[in-house]
What does this fold into?
Amino acid sequence: MKYKIFGKSEWGSDIIEFLCHELSIEYDFVEIGDNFKSDKTILSVNPLGRVPMVETPNGECLIESLAIVYHLTEGKSHLVPDTKNGMTYFHQIMAFMSSSIYPAILLYFHPDHYVSNENTEDLMNRSKSILETYLNYLENKIGEYIVGNSLSVADFYLFTLLFWLEEDHFLENYPKIQNFYNKMLQNQTIMKVRKIQNERKTV
Ligand SMILES: N[C@@H](CCC(=O)N[C@@H](CS)C(=O)NCC(=O)O)C(=O)O
It folds into this structure.
């Protein structure tokens, strides 16, 4: 039995797909349709109707990107720091990305999910300014990678978030983040997953 990743290319499931490739974990990808919020199979796995979600080889269902990342990397990964201090900082950045940046991105790109039509512009403006504060924080932290001097799963997580922000020109004022993003575009795992995703589109 393999893992099953439920998701859509360029959505939050990218984080999990990058990670599975990087760790050579075999999986089947279940592409969600446009009506996935009312799809009974999806809702039986995740009543919240959100992705990413995965089914483990023994049939357990996991939701929340952070929890899935921790499940997949637990105890066996070159993709997490190997020191106690490194781990402490890693947890901080992972929590910051999943509980601060990701939700603010949802507010910015989907304001209509949260407020009435007359307030969407205001919500977009406010979430944009919050995102800029977050990017500024990261700009002051980021080096070659976001945690220490070697690639970690935090980099794949961050790349997925930046991919959405780049579309709306958020990265232009953050040269170090932009450099990191450009470098990750050339990452072998990311390039391989993008190729697979393109092949899936044409099937
Ligand atoms: N906190 C969740 C957020 C997941 C999430 O909001 N995913 C988006 C796609 S990137 C989604 O499924 N949106 C559908 C919806 O909520 O309607 C996580 O980290 O996994």
Observations:
- Residues 84-187 form a domain with the Glutathione S-transferase Yfyf (Class Pi); Chain A, domain 2 fold (CATH 1.20.1050.10).
- The mean pLDDT is 95.
- The pocket of glutathione is lined by residues 11-12, 37, 50-52, 64-66, 98, 102, 106 (CB under 6 Å).
- The longest strand covers residues 3-7.
